Amino acid sequence: MFAEELCQWSAPNWEEQLRKRLIDSVPGPCVLDLREDIILTFGQGDWSLVERDLRSAFSEELAKVLESCVREQVTVGLAIRRELINYKKLCLHVMQAGMTIDKDMRQLTSFFHCDLLSDDPAKAARRQRYKELTQTMNECRGAVMALHDARYFGKTICALPRHPDTGIPAKFEHLPESLEVWRPLRQAREFIQQREALDAYWLSRWQHWQVTSAADPNAVGSGPVSGQELLAEEMAQEAPTAPAEGNDPLKPERTSLPWVSERLMVKNTPLSSDGLQSLLASVDAALPGLPKVARRYVELVFVARGASKALTIQASLERYRAALQRAASEAEEISAELKAMLEAPHSESVISAGLHFHADKHQRLLSGMLPVMREMLRWLKPISAARDGDDRIFVSGSRSATAFVPSGFADLLGPYRAKVGEHRGAMLNELAETGWPCSTRPAKEVHLQSCRRCGERRSKLWLHRQLCFSCEGELRSEGCCPYSERCGKRSFCPHARRCIVCEAWSCDECRLLRGDGEDVWQLVGQLTPAIVFLDFDRTLATTKAGGSPLEGNHSVDSDLAAVCSGHSRVQVITRNSRKEDIEKFLAMKGCPVSKVRSVKREGLRTKAEAILEEMKCLAPPLTCSVVDVPAPAQAQEIPTPLAIFVDDDIRELTDPGLQPLVDEGRLLRFLFVRAGSKT
After folding, report:
1. Of 107, 548, 659, 674, which is the most buried if we count CB atoms within 10 A?
2. Is residue 520 part of a domain?
3. Of residues 623 and 671, which shows the higher confidence score?
């Protein structure tokens, strides 16, 4: 049927002819030049890019045959990726909140620390408070571990390399052992298996110390004064300790899990190549007579535009779900065994009591992990079943997470947040009445730092960025960023009392969000703004300080380039005076924009002036619709922006000249942070 057309691919000058067609119809670098080191310069993540490349090289009829045999596989993977992008942002927000609560819990346990084995009736209430706090702290720590897994694997799946030669993150090849939650699971399992041996060993050590102390009273002061101290001393040792007597039991040895770097890549794995091979197999089945060079072109299109990556995303998600399910099952089984152990009577010795505390610690960690793992499994199931055109589950918005949490999503941190609120007031009252307790005063601590505001010397637990928690609270109450004088009140969110810059925060009410190019791409895809304003230096491009993009080796952010390609009205607003160089550079990179405005060249003082001029030129009525956004009962309505302004400089975004547009709900500001940046 396509014999005549396919014969043209055998002509000696087929590549020359194809390049001419691609130059006329496909902006940016040519797919035929695809290499692993330049793959980020190719737009990806949208089925229309695959269609454009195929229809530029083949007739419409032949291109439709190629598209029909792979469309379903690719669009499913792209739909899953869109959901995962917002899912991982939600996980990031919850994880960050969990880490804050975890630090609050550590401060509370330090403040109210006391000896749980003491029988002093005057301290009974304090012992009970300390016990509750330590139990809650361990549960919160387990929840944060599980949230770390959710965030890491969600983000890593979205950011899987497009080129099959790059490989796959090693953690995918070591699942489930590479899960953050697997280490405490392994430790709890070993504790159960070694419980009797541990009891026998520590009891032998305790008895030996008692005999030694009775024979030599002068040795008492140098040894542990309680079984709890002896237990802590011995638990710190990893290697088997020599027995006191020849027949005494050895301390059981703990198994250590190998550390795997998050950056380590494994090459030549089925996970990195199976997706591409599956697409090519579909092509071969639909067009068995496709010439080798034409098939190679199709392969390059699949790799460059992320089509093969879409299938890798599906396979990686299923592998992660299976590992998470196994970990959850293990946690349920081990937790039940620990619960039975805790309910069983134990001996009256302080050593056995100490073991009881360790069993409780393991059980609490698992109790914190399990709800998070179950909740993530519950939401990963519909994400893995997402299809193109389905209603969205997670939608981009504030806090670099979602505009709303899907109906039914559990408040995973609620119990821990409530416990902090319950006891923090008591801590502050006691601090005001009697000062710092002995448990928080530096005794043997040598790594002390001074608060840069009040000069109080404390350990890192009570200081953050050289600021004690008391001074930090005072500065927040004044509406200022506690960490940077440069930020001041400019980037401080009064609603959450957090700094947008220093604390990676976002706020819908302030209409000031924070994220990378992926977040911008998602937001523009879900909101249909009338216009998008992009900064150039260190935002759309890697240039700095007004330099020419034609000098040196510069690139564009691939996600922001996709925004430029997919939106009809994107303008570059920059202080860089190299306007012609910028226009030429963007054309070379296949990054179309409707206009480039140089504030310096036009004699304007601020970018706000240029934005105000453009907003006045928009034809009334100024409207902007939300597409593909479901409206569950608990979703919060957010005023739809008429324009989105993306810049890496908070000073540009918070220019007073923009405030009227912000107050009217006509401008959404976005602080751009390049992926991988710490700031």
Report:
1. 107
2. yes
3. 671
Number of compact structural domains in the chain = 2
Tokens found for residue 257: 């899990």
Three-state SS for 596?
A: strand
Q: Are residues 527 and 554 in the same domain?
A: yes
Whole-Å CA distances, 51 to 185, 558, 564: 47, 18, 18
Rg (CA), the chain: 30
pLDDT digits (tens, 9 = 90+) for 145-204: 999 999 999 999 999 999 999 999 999 999 999 999 999 999 999 999 988 888 788 777
What does DSSP say about strands 512-515 and 667-672: parallel, antiparallel, or unpaired? parallel
Q: Mark whether 551 and 643 lie in a shared domain.
A: yes
Q: At what angle do helices 182-193 and 307-343 cross, to 10 degrees?
A: 30
Contacts of 210 (CB under 8 A, 6+ apart): none
For residues 552 and 638, state if they share a domain: yes
Kindly provide the b/e burial profile for residues 320-343, where b requires at least 16 CB atoms within 10 angstroms of the residue's own CB. bbebbeebbebbeebbebbeebee
Asked whether residue 556 is domain-assigned, the answer is yes
406, amino acid identity: P
Q: Do residues 609 and 640 both lie within one domain? A: yes
158: tokens are: 């979205």
Is 521 found in the same domain as 621? yes
pLDDT given for residue 231 in this prediction: 54
Same domain, 601 and 536: yes
Domain of 479, in residue numbers = 442-499
What pLDDT sits at residue 638? 46
Residue 643 DSSP class: E
**Interatomic CA distance for residues 72 and 68, integer angstroms:** 8
> Is it the case that residue 460 has pLDDT exceeding 90?
no
Here the tokens at position 497 are 């009392």
Q: What share of the chain is helix, strand, coil (3-state, %, to 5)?
A: 55, 10, 35
Better pLDDT: 624 or 89: 89
Q: What is the pLDDT of residues 567-584, one digit of tens each?
A: 889 999 999 999 999 999
Note whether 504 and 513 are within 8 A (CB). Answer: no
Burial class (CB in 10 A: 0-12, 13-18, 19+), 631: exposed
Least confident of 13-17, 120-124, 128-132, 567-571: 120-124
Least confident among 210-214, 381-385, 563-567: 210-214
User: Are residues 625 and 570 located together in one domain of the fold?
Assistant: yes
Q: Output the domain CATH number for residue 553.
A: 3.40.50.1000
Nearest 5°: the CA angle 21, 25, 26 is 105
Instruction: Give CA 640 to chain center in angstroms.
Output: 26
Does 630 reside within a domain?
yes
How crowded is the C-beta side of 254, counted as CA atoms within 13 Å? 19
Task: Please indicate, yes or no, whether residues 562 and 660 belong to a single structural domain of this protein.
Answer: yes
Nearest to 75 by CA among 392, 388, 306, 389: 388
Tokens of 173: 């090849």
Give me the DSSP letters along 78-123. Answer: HHHHHHHHHHHHHHHHHHHHHHHHHHHHHHHHHHT---TT---GGG
Residue 28 lies inside a defined structural domain of this protein: no
**Least confident segment among 16-20, 354-358, 600-604:** 354-358
Q: pLDDT grade, residue 233 (50/70/90)? A: low
Which helix (H) or strand (E) covers residue 270, if one does?
helix 270-286
